[in-house]
Amino acid sequence: MGTLGSVVDLLAHRHPGTVEVLIGPADRRVSEVRLVEQVDQVDDAPAGALLVLERGLAALTGDYRFDVMVRRAAAREVAALVVVLPEGAKLSLTAMALARRAEIAVIRLAPEVDVTAALGTMVRQATDRLSVTVGRARAVCEAIDGRSFDSVEALLDRVGLLLGRTVSIGPRPDGDGQALTVPAGPINGTDRSGGWLWTERPGDADADALLEMVLWRVAAETTRLTDERVRAEQVSRRSAGEVLVQLVEADRAARAAIAPSARRLGIPVDGWHVVTRIEPDNLLEVVGDDVAAFETRDELASLALKAAASMPGTWHVGHEPAGVLLLWTGDSPPRQETHAQLQRQLAFVLKALVGRVRGLQVFCGTGTARPGIAGLASSATEARLAVSSARFRQRYNVPVHFDAVGMRATLLEWYGSPTVQQSIDRLFAPLADLTPAKRQAMIDTVCTYLDLQGSAARTAEVLHLHRNAVRYRIQRAFEVLGIDEHDADQRLFLHLACRAQRLGDIGA
């Protein structure tokens, strides 16, 4: 026999908007469905019966006679009374109180419902397990064909309602065969093993077979919904990632122009930011070609975002040819414990990344917390400098914090001298005729070259340039700037000037 809840659910599906449970529990078993045409017939009802009152008896609900009917139903341990009432009609408080005490459900049917058809639906649902499965299977398929679900959760909630049983998704359940299971495909963007749909077996061979077919249909829909969600997340993440990279690379005027787009994509540029830069050192070696490297960087960016997201705050990620940028944003300056948690989270992110690609080695640097859109760019520059330090010291697969690099205070203090600033301005004066992008590219190339102890090969690898291009840029830069590469003092001043120029420009 079916439960009262399953009868109501199917009735509501067949007659949407016209069925309402006014009071009472829905978990009682229904032993029988009867049409009551006279009050005295209640006295013959068996325990657990669902009594459908003929339309003419609706007039009784407004006076004491309905109270009497509820008392008689309680004496017979009836499960529910179904009455035909217009929307908004009220039962007496006495009748409602009696029904509540006796745990009798009172169900309202709208006057436009065909009582005979509704009675047939209730009888089949309450008394015939196989016809219930057939009817509910058809209802599930009709709901899926309507494509009205915006998530897997909404789909399973509706399917569970229509089937009268809970349908779950996730790892395959353990047990002794009481669960009916079918593979559901990937249940998120990174779980390649996939998941399973399962529900409790009806216990009848025909019903089991029919229900299994329904689960296969539901599994196909969960796969479609998951694919749509993953594609939407990828588009949103990549769009936000592209804007993040633009913010990091732009000058002050360009950042102001980009900020509205960033806000629309959910990047809270006005908060407090910490930027982490992750640069794979041997990605081409472990994946084989440029196409695979791009796809792997995109996958690593997605994985980094998922691994980081368990820490409170807002996270965004972007990737460029050199590596992955991971942005954390909070509403207020991070406290000491937040800094510590952030470092632990970054260590977890790196562990997840190197665990995904066998043999991968990465350098990771993280900037300090800074406010606003200019602070975001500042933290990104600090992260780049921290990566340079990690690369120079060959510190693989561990996050290096900019404060730990040990150069910031000294360089800022040195650069704060007016005499030093004038000397650096004179040094870089020959670059004034270049566009800002070309000027910065030349300084970055020289700085990276000097960071790597004058290795054109390693500079080419880091900047993704040909060695000859690096040699040409370096030679051209030294010529334009009037620097003798073999003069240790000139080379040291140029190196410090490049580093200080980066620190001086990050807040511009």
From TrEMBL:
Matching InterPro entries: CdaR-like_regulators (IPR051448), CdaR_GGDEF (IPR041522), PucR_C-HTH_dom (IPR025736), PucR_C-HTH_sf (IPR042070)
Domain CdaR GGDEF-like: 257-387
Pfam entry (one): GGDEF_2
Gene3D superfamilies from the UniProt entry: PucR C-terminal helix-turn-helix domain
Boundaries of every PucR C-terminal helix-turn-helix domain copy: 443-500
Domain of life: Bacteria
Membrane-spanning intervals of the chain: none
Family: Belongs to the CdaR family.
PANTHER family the UniProt entry points to: CARBOHYDRATE DIACID REGULATOR, DNA-BINDING TRANSCRIPTIONAL ACTIVATOR ADER
Name of this chain's protein: PucR family transcriptional regulator
UniProt organism field: Pseudonocardia aurantiaca
